[in-house]
Structures are given as structure tokens and as C-alpha cells.
Design goal:
Helix content: 40-55%
Structural class: alpha/beta
Shape: globular
Largest sheet: 5 strands, parallel
Bound molecules: coenzyme A
Strand content: 15-25%
Radius of gyration: 15 Å
Strand order of the largest sheet: 3-2-1-4-5
């Protein structure tokens, strides 16, 4: 049985992330969406809020579950015996960062664990969680770029 991790901040999850989750769920027997608490970022949503939103969005994907972790990605991956770590690549600018991370992780992963890259579908190649938050905060439209429940949660945050 092959199991993979798709990790990220997901602050919040976008349709770009969901696209990667859906496609990766067809490639592996089990997929875990790993929400990281990254101390270098100040998130809009708590880890619990991010996990809750993702849980609502994966109900139709029976082989996908959500978890959260702190610390070194490789420690979490080795401990849980994942076979692969999935990342989405949006543009060439992602590549520089991703290759460095993949090569560093390769040093840290147990033997046989691979980083696997999926090209982001073109309709999502320009989105990031930050750009979505900025546009919503300024009352811009992001229809089709984030799930409606996520849009509602972002609006709630900014109305406070
Ligand atoms: N569609 C849309 N947006 C996407 C996307 C896709 N397919 N893939 C990535 N993004 C966006 C995210 O929304 C995020 O946007 P933001 O920066 O505006 O919030 C951005 O790209 C970065 O993605 P994210 O997955 O959140 O990256 P990250 O830089 O937080 O990395 C980890 C997440 C878990 C891989 C990384 O932080 C990590 O490994 N941390 C653990 C510590 C560690 O082990 N460090 C050593 C690494 S070698």
C-alpha cells in the first residue's frame, strides 16, 4: 500500500490545493493532508480552523485524511512511514524553492521516500492563499478560486 503526504500551510485551503489533493488521491492508496504549524508565518486561521475546513472539503474522497504537525517535515514523514511527499508546482518561480526543499529533504528522509510534483492546473496557477486573503480583505471577487465555505470563513475573519 502506497501512502503519501501533501503538506503545506493551507491558510486557507484554495481550489488549487483541492485540485492537487483530488489528483494525488487517485495516485496513492492513502493521502494525508498535513497542515503545518509554521512558526515563521503568522496565520489568519488557527491549525484547528484550517483542519476543520479541509475536513469539510474532503468528504467525497474516502482515502484522504487530514492531520497536523509541527517541526521538521522529514521527521513527521519518516515516523509515519509515508512513501512520498506531494507538492504542487505553479510556475518556474516555485521550482527554485521546491528543488532546494526536495534535495534537503532527500538527505533527511528514510531510504525510498520520494518527493513527487504535480503541475498545478492552469486555471489555478496564479493563486496563493495570501493573494486570496488580500483580495477578499479589499472586497474583491474570488469566485471559483476558493470553495464557498472557505470564502465565508475569510470574510468572517475580516469583518471582525
Ligand atoms: N495551488 C494554489 N496555491 C498553492 C499551491 C497550489 N497548487 N501550492 C502552493 N500554493 C501556495 C500556498 O497557498 C502558499 O501561499 P502563501 O505563501 O500565500 O500562503 C504558498 O504557495 C506556499 O505553499 P505552502 O505549501 O504553504 O508552503 P510552505 O512554504 O508553507 O511549505 C512545508 C510547507 C510544510 C512544505 C514547509 O514549510 C516545511 O517543510 N516545513 C517544515 C519545516 C522543515 O522541515 N523545514 C525544512 C524543509 S527542507
Amino acid at each position: 500500500m502506497k501512502k503519501a503526504l501533501y503538506s503545506g500551510s493551507f491558510d486557507p485551503i484554495t481550489n488549487g490545493h483541492l485540485d492537487i489533493i483530488t489528483r494525488a488521491s487517485k495516485m496513492f492508496d492513502k493521502l494525508t493532508v498535513g497542515v503545518i504549524h509554521n512558526p515563521n508565518k503568522t496565520p489568519l486561521f488557527s491549525v484547528e480552523e484550517r483542519v476543520e475546513m479541509i475536513n469539510k472539503l474532503i468528504v467525497d474522497l474516502p482515502n484522504v485524511k487530514v492531520d497536523n504537525f509541527t517541526g521538521l517535515l522529514a521527521d513527521y514523514v519518516n515516523k509515519n512511514k509515508f512513501n512520498a511527499v506531494v507538492r504542487g508546482l505553479r510556475a518556474t518561480t516555485d521550482f527554485e524553492y521546491e528543488i532546494q526543499m526536495a534535495q534537503m529533504n532527500a538527505e533527511l528522509f528514510s531510504p525510498g521516500i520520494e518527493s513527487v510534483f504535480l503541475m498545478t492546473s492552469p486555471q489555478y496557477s496564479f493563486i496563493s492563499s495570501s493573494v486570496i486573503k488580500e483580495v477578499v480583505a479589499l472586497n474583491g471577487k474570488v469566485d471559483g478560486l476558493v470553495p464557498p465555505i472557505v470564502l465565508e470563513e475569510i470574510k468572517k475573519k475580516y469583518s471582525k
